[in-house]
Amino acid sequence: MEHDDDGVDEHDTPAEVDAAFRTLRRVAIAHFVLFLAAVMGVPALSLTLGWWSGGRLAGGMSPGFAMAAFGLYGFFLVIGLAAATLSSAVEARMLGGRNDQGTDYAGDPYPSDGELQ
Amino acid sequence: MTITSAGTLAILIAAVALVTLVVRPRGVSTVDFYLAGQRVGVATNALAICGDYFSAASFLGVAAAVYVSGLDGVWYAVGFAAGFVPVLLFVAAPLRRFGEFSIPDFLGRRLASERVRLVAVGVVQTVILVYLVPQAVGSGITWQLLVGHGLPGLSAYATGVVLSTAVVAGLVAFGGMRGTTWTQAIQFLLLLGALVWLAVAVAGSGFHYSEAVADLSAEPLANPVHGDAGWHLQPESNQLDPGAPATFGQPGAAYGPLAQFALILTLVMGTAGLPHVMNRYFTSPTGTAARMTTVWVLGLAGLFYALAVMLGTAARQQIAAAVEHHPWLEELTVDGVLRVPEHALPVLGRIYGGDSGLAVVAAGALVAVMSTIAGLLLAAAASWGHDVYERHINPRATQSQAVWAGRASTVVAALAAGALAIAMQPDDPSPAVPSIVAAMVTWAFAIAGSALTPVFVLAIWWRGTTAAGAIAGMSVGGLVSVSMFVVGALPVGPGLGETLVTPTLVAAPLAALVTWLVSRATTPPADVERQWLVLHGTAADRHAERLARLTIASAEPTRRRRGRGTRRQGDRDADR
Amino acid sequence: MRTGSAILAGTIGVTWAVVYLVTQVFVSPPLGVGTTVAAGTVASVLLVLGYPSALRGPRAARTLRRWSQPRGGSDPRPGPGPGPDERGGEGRGVERSRRRIVAGGRRMPLRSGLTADAARRTAELLRPLLGGDAVVITDRERNLAFVGPGSDHHQAGGLVRATSVRSAIAKGRTVVSRRASSMGCDDPDCPLRSGVVVPLVVGARVVGTIGVFRTHDRPTPRDQVEDMASILSLHLELAEADRERKLASDARLDALRAQINPHFLFNILNTIASKSRTDPDEARQLLLRLSDFFRYAVRQEGQLAEFAQEYFFVRTYLSLEQARFGDRLRVRYDIDPQVLTAHVPVLTIQPLVENAVKHGLADKVEGGTVTLRARVDPLTRTTSIRVTDDGVGMTADVLDGLGAGAGATRAGTGARGEEGARGGVGLQNISERLTALFGERFTLDIQSTAGAGTVVEVRVPLR
């Protein structure tokens, strides 16, 4: 690993960055639509669906209140985690890759550091 | 106030102050002052962001809003927590990768225009000031309740305002950001600790959340009003269904149909434009780390707001039940309902923990206020000192001159906020808004979300954004949102007023549209492709990660790489 | 069903159960039947659409291993996967064929892969590229080529004279000499004073060396020479694999032979050599990319690989071609996030892209754009990969010739000369491999209009 740690700056080509950018934009918009649907859906349901605020969960809380009081925060965490891992996975796979590729191959007979012995 | 509560409070505040001083940085350069060396771990950074973000509005305001309006108050919690999802999706990683100090810096360099930078500074300063005022108000209210009397010549409320802003301004000016990054994290832990303790105490006393909601919903929601015949309870009118009474567990106690969506959208869009929160992202080591930091923040925020909502509900039920056992509640309540809803958590603390409990909650509130004020003042200092002073007033400024400019602007911003807070003292909480503190914070979110967020997101995700477009968008967003506040303050009829004070629903799309139209008519910066490599490429991230691995792997840490200068140099290299 | 459909079906079942519990059991009064069914349907549709993107992250590495087993027969077996024994047997099959490739040749592959003539051309190219005064390429005993000062006594074809070269061959390690004494040339008048000698390795055998010498005491940076040596080693290995192809039935080697050819290596080395004067940083980047390119091609073992890896191969290739063609070659990738973890046949996309560059754009003066579009269709559960160029296109009869089988292809595109014939082999080869892998369950469509460009689309089952 000696020589390519120090001497080489990592480098992305514009076409690769553009590809990653558009893929990430797609990821972000898809998740945002889902997020907006959920966050707007909770008040929307309480306006339209009687059961949403009239029903009683075990104990007496309505589904709408339960969603606003804790369900949505869990959803935010889940969607955030999903978006973050997906975005990072997309970036790792679409940009760079010289060093990351090597990890898939244990006992690689063609070491990427060029120290052929 | 007793010796116990004073002692507990003093110890907690002293501990925070001590930490600030102990971790105070040695060499002070502007980069150190503003950026804490970019070596702050993801978790610490997430905690620090939470410390910045969870203000008096979150700690006192959300519980108060739930206390007063039930489900309609919960929308505040939902909106505050949801705000980080758009940040995560659209802003966090590219913003970090671009590697600039502040929002004006980012927009200025991205669009290659000093005018954009100056307009952005104007908007940022407005947001900061509007955000500072409710924090100062919150500390005034806390002082009023906790101490009850002020310094000679000042009311109790004014004393709280003056002391909190002065102390925090001093800490920020002389602690530097390195100090406040750690203190933000520690302050947030203290805040969360106070909330968790209160939740455990409430749950331990046999409080049943679900049943409490059902019990409270069984009868119409009524809140104290100061009328001709003194205080009395007046049922809230149902904004959704004018005939029916408003109840705790049903929507409609505070907001009409459109206003419900407008409020949530305002809070959701606003977070991405909050300067003190966004500035924290520049301290993440990489774009990916910035993203993971946001995930942490989402988790912490979810926990925090779920607890705050629960405690607001608990306060509504438990305080009414506790009145007969606690005579001191008489003067704070009307028929078992608090006159000032912001008192909900401190009173709950006193019911369950006695004077020490009150002090813990009060310390939490003061700490929430202090950490947010610190973040805001620092953002103000960064944008005045860095964007205006160093670039336009004195371009040949030395490091120490720039630091002093930052300190001076810190003090000026604190003074302005304190004066405004005293002028706006809430004598008589109006029933129209659930919680004055939460409502005032909403204004800051509205301006940020209308003027900054659309332009910000477009600049990151659309190559065609131009300087002229950004200026037009920020101006339109800012002006429309402010003028809607003004119109909303006039009597315009029920339902419409609440929509007007949460103007993002109208102003943000308008700002985005104007930005788009003007940008289409003008030419984007020539080097947009090169900027794209930095904004959306991961070359600098990978380089930084490899250097970090190398530094860890090598037995003797290489001195020349330890400076953050090398890291920033790496960013610059990737530009070329 | 091997594609994770069972998991999807299970997840949908669980979702319906949750919807039922939440709306009918835990809550009183229960939600109306119509609304419940609507909610469950919305959840199911979201799951089906979002499911492919859940196939990501750490699991990918594991599934990759499973899928790297080559499978005989044309139809993938249904069911959760072959038993361990069966898979082990296949694994041994791979081992065997690989071992044969590596250990098969006892002759000097440098002579067949890089002839003395090729060695001389290479050495001439590398001399400016590596910043040396003299470059030598040897086999285990003799100098194959020597370019630069000192060639009077280090003749090509003569025995190796420098001890540093001999010790590099013996030890199989890089030898750096900083003084004339450690260089060990037996001619006292030798002008060379410092040098870096790196062995060329095929499998585990040292088959020769490449040495870069200078007439002063500061040798060439060692890493540059090692990079170059690793590229040459890989190339030699490929040349050897190419010769062994007659023995190996693995169709993948066809693809290798077709794609990784001396023309490409020499073209790109020429480009790098010219860049090394104007832009040494970029030349260095290109050298690394070239090394990546060969390394990927050689170490692909199975029949299927994660799309992200094939994509890496394609963009490595295209960035090299872009260096060569400059502004004339524009590239656009349009890639679904879900497709990154889908598994596609190895070494199929790059040949399509290479055809687009070579036959579509290389002959077009103003150049053009190559577009790679990859999508996952969650409903039909297919991966579709489309390579488009706006180059010169093909006439209908050439297109027909491409579709008419190997013999016709080779003859039909004769007008394009050798390169055209090779392109045909590429498509033919891809088609054969897709048939072997998927039977009838794939499509390979080519549409072309003379003067307007070509579209090649491959659709394979989602893995």
Task: Give the helices and strands, then pairings.
The complex is a heterotrimer of chains A (117), B (576) and C (463).
Chain A (H helix, E strand, L loop, with lengths): L1 H5 L7 H35 L1 H5 L8 H32 L3 H5 L15
Helix pairs in contact in A: 2-4
Chain B lengths: L2 H20 L7 H6 L6 H12 L2 H14 L1 H12 L1 H15 L4 H8 L3 H33 L9 H49 L4 H10 L3 E6 L2 E6 L21 H14 L4 H7 L5 H36 L10 E2 L2 E2 L5 H50 L5 H25 L12 H26 L5 H23 L6 H5 L3 H18 L6 H9 L2 H15 L5 H4 L1 H12 L1
Antiparallel strand pairs in B: 1-2, 3-4
Chain C lengths: L4 H21 L7 H22 L4 H9 L16 H20 L5 H5 L2 H15 L3 E5 L4 E5 L15 H9 L3 E3 L2 H4 L10 E9 L2 E10 L7 H23 L7 H8 L2 H17 L1 H20 L4 E3 H19 L3 E7 L7 E3 L3 H13 L6 E10 L4 E8 L6 H8 L1 H8 L4 H22 L4 E7 L3 E9 L2
Parallel strand pairs in C: 7-9
Antiparallel strand pairs in C: 1-2, 1-5, 3-4, 4-5, 6-8, 9-10, 10-12, 11-12
Helix pairs in contact in C: 1-2, 6-11, 9-10, 9-12, 10-17, 11-12, 11-13, 12-13, 13-14, 14-17, 15-16, 16-17
Give an overview in words.
The complex is a heterotrimer of chains A (117), B (576) and C (463). Helix content of chain A is 70%, strand content 0%. Chain A is built from 5 helices and no strands. Chain A is elongated and about 60 Å long. Chain B has helices at residues 3-22, 30-35, 42-53, 56-69, 71-82, 84-98, 103-110, 114-146, 156-204, 209-218, 257-270, 275-281, 287-322, 344-393, 399-423, 436-461, 467-489, 496-500, 504-521, 528-536, 539-553, 559-562, 564-575, and strands at 222-227, 230-235, 333-334, 337-338. Chain B has 23 helices and 4 strands. Chain B has a two-stranded antiparallel sheet. A two-stranded antiparallel sheet of chain B has the order 3-4. The radius of gyration of chain B is 24 Å and the shape is globular. With 463 residues, chain C is of the alpha+beta class. Helix content of chain C is 52%, strand content 17%. Chain C has helices at residues 5-25, 33-54, 59-67, 84-103, 109-113, 116-130, 163-171, 180-183, 222-244, 252-259, 262-278, 280-299, 307-325, 349-361, 396-403, 405-412, 417-438; strands at residues 134-138, 143-147, 175-177, 194-202, 205-214, 304-306, 329-335, 343-345, 368-377, 382-389, 443-449, 453-461. In chain C, the strands form 3 sheets. Chain C has a 5-stranded antiparallel β-sheet, sandwiched between helices. Chain C has a 5-stranded mixed β-sheet with strand order 7-9-10-12-11, covered by helices on one side. In chain C, strand 9 and strand 10 (382-389) form a beta hairpin. In chain C, helix 15 (396-403) runs antiparallel to helix 16. The longest helix of chain C is centred in the middle third of the chain and has 23 residues, at 222-244. Chain C is elongated, with a radius of gyration of 27 Å. The N and C termini of chain C lie close together (10 Å). The relative contact order of chain C is 0.09. Residues 55-111 and 405-423 of chain C have low confidence and may be disordered. The chains are: A mainly alpha (117), B mainly alpha (576), C alpha+beta (463).
